[in-house]
Inverse folding.
């Protein structure tokens, strides 16, 4: 049975595939989001491969929130950071690698 808080969060992120963008917290080489009970909703972990490259090492979305476009938004947030810092990305986690393969033209400027 789903919790009331989980239902509220699902309503909050219901339109993630549309125009809504989730605001992620950041720190310790990751972007992430916790719910109001401090349960991890999602995170993407990245690292500096070298001074000009970022490696996307792991993407995670809690089972209750999968299928809503959250992981794609996490990847896009790292892409945005890479563009701001004029860096390239090495997509090491399977999800990010798949996004880069399927959407090469969107990420051509940051692909290694």
């Amino acid at each position: 049975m789903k919790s009331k808080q989980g239902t509220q969060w699902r309503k909050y992120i219901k339109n993630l595939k549309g125009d809504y963008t989730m605001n992620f917290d950041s720190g310790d080489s990751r972007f992430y989001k916790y719910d109001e009970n401090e349960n991890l909703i999602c995170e993407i972990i990245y690292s500096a491969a070298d001074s000009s490259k970022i490696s996307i090492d792991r993407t995670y979305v809690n089972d209750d929130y999968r299928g809503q476009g959250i992981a794609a938004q996490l990847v896009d947030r790292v892409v945005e950071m890479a563009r701001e810092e004029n860096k390239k990305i090495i997509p090491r986690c399977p999800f990010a690698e798949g996004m880069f393969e399927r959407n090469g033209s969107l990420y051509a400027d940051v692909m290694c």
